Here is the input.
Amino acid sequence: MNFEEKFESLIEVLIQSPQPNKEFLHFMGPKGIANSLGHDEILKLSKDKALRLMTISNKEPILIEGENTLEFLTNFFAVMMSGNIPVPVTTNLWINDERYVEIIKSIKATTKANILLGNSSLQELIRDMDLLLVSKENWKDLKKREKEVYMPNADDIAFIQFSSGSTGNPKGVVLKHKQVLANLRQITNEIHDEERGNNVITWLPVHHDMGLIGGILTPFINQYDVYIMTPYEFAVNPNKWLKTISQYRGNIIVAPNSGYHMAMKRVRQKVLDSIDLSSVRIALCGAEPINYKTLENFYETFKVAGLKKEAFVPCYGMAENTLAISFHRNRRPFKVDIISKKEMLENQRASTSGSKDERDNLYFVSCGKPLADIEVKIVDDRGNELPERSIGNILIKSPSTTEGYYQREDINKDLFQDGMLKTGDLGYMVGGELYITGRKKDLTIVNGLN
Here is the structure.
């Protein structure tokens, strides 16, 4: 399916839904599914909000509190349909008030936003920010405009993605509808399997690219059944995630390395004895460095529950490419490359280690091959392409790649090299597969060694 050819925007996905009444979005509550709805209901709720937003805003960024709720989803599409630009931001539920205020002030300063859509409890926190708070309780106070909603085109900004910890002079990735649709196509082509099922279980925060694109928009465009928990629920009790996977026969799950580690460490024996994870065919792992021991330990813990080792899909991505760049093709278990630390430090080479001395061994997990239409190159600091197993700067080019950061010409001018995005990451290729070794900015030079 070529989403860019079929749809102009994410809003057209709602309007042209092949099964508008299919309830596939399931928001989880304390005792199971709290609310289920489909494209028709999302369109109806979002349109009502959009007509109200049109009376107070026009073609401007609007901040949206990133809670894993129906309220966020309808706010997100309402902002698009009102002709404005959605800017998902963190909720204050899992960070302290001082940190939350710092983040929101920084993002407001960059975007010049005047409106925040979020919980009424935020009113006191934003009192000095010159932000109009529109909460669930006061939407009806806004007059509804009697006209048609805005229909975005492919070149319109779909949303601006800030990192979860944006402060100071933050970078907001500008993503157009055509770029988002391209990445959703690239992801779908890798994960879709009509025969084995596409049920998705997610708890990842929706203000983060992996939670929004991977956890919400991929199921949204394909009408996959998706069961949406909150990050708070997972953090308090990872066993609930495992039980949800088992109960609703989750086929696709996604978590960062730390999520798999936490679930493995905190599983209760009673839960382990009762769950069935045999339905999981894709267990995506990304968003932070991947430790092979975490995946090995998770598998060893849950193989008694039917988990298959080949389900693991280590992946690489970043908001600057919407989300996904490369996936491990999981017809076989994930790959681990053991290289010489000495060779890496002295020669920037990922030479296979034959050492029996563990102090010289470094372990890197393959993040697989680039997705369709994504070009990846490894280059040195002069821009020269490097051969296999040479460690260098990772460049990417894709129809899903951003054209730059919002209102940040100071860094946009140096964001690309020969038409390819400079990711800021370091890595190497082996057999067409990508291995990530770290961030360029984290390098220090000691006695001539990186």
Q: What stands out?
A: The chain has two domains: 3-178, 237-442. Residues 443-450 have pLDDT under 50 and may be disordered. The longest strand covers residues 420-430.
